[in-house]
Amino acid sequence: MSVNNSTTANNVDPKEIEKFSAMAEQWWDLEGDFKPLHMLNPTRLRYIEQGAEGLFAKSIADIGCGGGILSESMAKKGANVIGIDMAHAALQIAKLHALETQTKVQYQKITAEDFASQHAGQFDLVTCMEMLEHVPDPASIVQACCDLLKPGGTVYFSTINKTFKAYLMMIVGAENLLKWVPKGTHEYEKFIRPSQLLTAIDSTTLNCEDLCGVEFNPLQSEFVITKNVNVNYMLRCTKAL
């Protein structure tokens, strides 16, 4: 998963943008297509907050923010958040919801690479959650996230492992059987093994400090942090001083 310079300037899959734009109106429907994200958000927010030792007054860039679920929750913790995405419809929903909830968040339609070229070294934290598996060149996004960080800053990634279990859980189960998300939301070919992501991280000045799994606990009806990275997983990385 090396950086492909031919895709760096336009690391966008138009089909992915169209897919999430078509679902835009449901971003904040707690029982809609993005219900799994709403269920997951408290877990990933807690993971980010604990690793950062609090979010108050931290400058944060949320890469691939979509409709703003994570961006808005971090802003409510007192962080100064800029969310970026290339799906115009999703950003409009994010802006509208922030107005309705009186939450101070900035949103921009821009690629991660272009944003990094304009704001290099400006952020305490960068989050890139459930986004890497939707772009042609994930390693380019990893590099952009690194570039955005101040020395000593932290980036959080989450994505889906490329395993048969992930295929069964995320595509057969979540899309076809449980109907948690629309068919076609995920593509197995774009899933990313931890070893691939770590290789991309190793080519930057980031150091991986934590790798954990995320699993749904049906008894508690919530997502929990585990050591099992066979399906969903998250990483916390720090930029060298």
Topology of this protein?
Blueprint: H1 5-8, H2 14-22, H3 35-52, E1 59-63, H4 69-75, E2 80-85, H5 88-100, E3 106-109, H6 112-118, E4 123-129, H7 138-148, E5 149-160, H8 164-177, H9 194-202, E6 206-217, E7 222-226, E8 232-239
Parallel strand pairs: 1-2, 1-4, 2-3, 4-5
Antiparallel strand pairs: 5-8, 6-7, 6-8
Summarize, please.
This protein has one domain: Rossmann fold (3-Layer(aba) Sandwich). It has nine helices and eight strands. Strands 3-2-1-4-5-8-6-7 form an eight-stranded mixed beta sheet.
Major sheet characteristics: 8 strands, mixed
Strand content: 15-25%
Instruction: Identify the CATH architecture.
Output: 3-Layer(aba) Sandwich
Using only C-alpha atoms, the radius of gyration works out to 16 Å
Coarse shape: globular
Order of helices and strands: HHHEHEHEHEHEHHEEE
State mean pLDDT (0 to 100 scale): 91
Helix content: 25-40%
Pathway: Cofactor biosynthesis; ubiquinone biosynthesis
GO biological process, one term: methylation
Binding site for S-adenosyl-L-methionine: 44, 64, 85, 129
Protein name: Ubiquinone biosynthesis O-methyltransferase
Considering the chains and any ligands shown, give keywords for the structure.
241 residues; alpha/beta; Rossmann fold; 8-stranded mixed β-sheet; 9 helices; 24% strand; disordered N terminus; polyprenyldihydroxybenzoate methyltransferase activity; transferase; EC 2.1.1.222; methyltransferase; EC 2.1.1.64
